[in-house]
Amino acid sequence: MSRSLLYAISSYFSYLSKSNTKHGVHSPFVYELVTKVFENKQKNSACGQIHSRYKELLYNKRVVETTDFDDSTSKKKYVTKFLKVSEIARNSSVTQRYGELLYRLVDWFKPETILEVGTCLGISTLYLAKAAPAARIITMEGCAAKAELARANFEKLDVNQVEITIGRFNNTLPLVLEKMPHIDFVFIDGHHQFKPTIEYFEQILKHSHEETVLVIDDIHWSKGMEKAWAQIGHKNEVTVTIDLFRMGLVFLRKSLSKQNFVIKY
Ligand SMILES: C[S@@+](CC[C@H](N)C(=O)[O-])C[C@H]1O[C@@H](n2cnc3c(N)ncnc32)[C@H](O)[C@@H]1O
Questions:
Q1: For 224-236, how does the pLDDT look when each residue is reduced to its tens digit (9 = 90+)?
Q2: Closest ligand 1 atom, CA of 146?
Q3: Which residue of 110, 218, 242, 260 could cross-link 233, Cys pair, CB 3.0 to 4.6 Å?
């Protein structure tokens, strides 16, 4: 068994042993979120359309030249790789379950502005966009070939409110934040390492407000991501965090008592 698989299994068991169901949640805000958003199993046609598009990508054997800025095994600034669209979709896109959760979160909080860090093929962007057709959305991607594929997916599903910014996050994030000074909803899903995650979070925090909702993907991906998640939960500006294992939710509302929840999802 590989070390990373062992790590994933042990961190999942540790999450399970700490997690609560709704019955252990005493915050009315979090209880409502659990019962009305996390547990809402209602199907809708927009999510169905996105999942069908995702399944089509799983059969797409076209090879594209990708640029990877996030390869921790390489000493180079970036690595180019030739990958099938199907491989990219399978390895990097949000799962249906968590994509639908993103949809329900956006539908519940009704953000007017959304920032996504990490577009890839745009599957998660589609869930965000379909839940808030009037919202302004900026999504960020370093690899031009993936951004092109995402653009085609947006067109295919008649999503035209999304602006894609191409470039390394450390170069493009300050520029994007200038263009979007008031952010209501953020999905951070790229460059899953301790230092960049904290740096992006802190930059975004300066453009957030009390009601901003921040979602971070892969919070248990590695020791570095778990450390970043723990550090985020201790920040002064952060009141409530919710660990759902795959994703973590962060709230800044001052009306909430400071608490880090671990909820079985
Ligand atoms: C996990 S994927 C995003 C998946 C997408 N949110 C979805 O669920 O459909 C992360 C993306 O971030 C991009 N990325 C990672 N590190 C980056 C960096 N430092 N600068 C720019 N892009 C980066 C990768 O190219 C990759 O496409």
A1: 999 999 999 999 9
A2: 27
A3: 260
**126 in Cβ contact with 53 (< 8 Å):** yes
Burial degree of 36 (CB within 10 A; 0-12, 13-18, 19+):
exposed
What is the DSSP code string of 88-121?
Answer: HHHHHSPPHHHHHHHHHHHHHH--SEEEEE--TT
33 vs 213: CA distance, rounded Å: 12
Q: For 69-105, what is each residue's pLDDT tens digit? A: 876 666 777 889 999 999 999 999 999 999 999 999 9
Q: What is the pLDDT of residue 22?
A: 84
Ligand 1 site, residue 143, Cβ cutoff 6 A: yes
- Chain position carrying tokens 């180079």: 76
Q: Which two tokens stand for residue 231?
A: 């550090």
Q: How far apart are CA 106 and CA 129, in angstroms?
A: 9
Ligand 1 midpoint to CA 92 (Å): 8
C-beta of residue 148 within 8 angstroms of C-beta of residue 119: no
Read off the pLDDT band of 181 (50, 70, 90). confident
Query: 3-44+94-262, which class in CATH?
Result: alpha beta
